[in-house]
Amino acid sequence: MKEEVPHLSENNNGQLLTPDEVAKHLQVTAEQIRSLIRRGHLPATNVGAGSKRPLYRISQQALDDFLKGRQQLNTHIPKKKFKQLSPIPDFFPGLK
Question: Using CA atoms, how far apart are residues 58 and 35, in angstroms rounded to an integer?
């Protein structure tokens, strides 16, 4: 059973969201959202053609797809198995 991701607003009507709006909704910083965009994890459109800093906008569909991809179905994290190391040889057995 797939859980539906809640929308930022019920009357979004295809509007594009700013990184600040998305950040507020996800309770993270806008810089974290911009980082996800720059790394290619969250699709966005740069509407600031010609400006020094990109003006990103995120569609609700892109946000929904991103969140669905980030859902963890299995919250159990297996313990790491460490390789058993051989004992360190005593090079100076007479010294204690």
Answer: 13
Q: What is the mean pLDDT of residues 81-93?
A: 79
Nearest residue to 69 via CA among 41, 34, 31: 41
pLDDT at position 14 is 73
Could you tell me the sign of the dihedral formed by the alpha carbons of 81, 83, 84, 87, in that order? negative
**Both structure tokens of 67:** 């969140």
- Pairing type for strands 56-59 and 16-17 reads antiparallel
Residue among 41, 48, 46 nearest 62 (CA):
41
Which domains does the chain possess?
16-70 (1.10.1660)
23-53 confidence digits (pLDDT tens): 999 999 999 999 999 999 999 999 987 778 8
Q: Where are the beta strands (DSSP E) in the chain?
A: 16-17, 45-46, 56-59
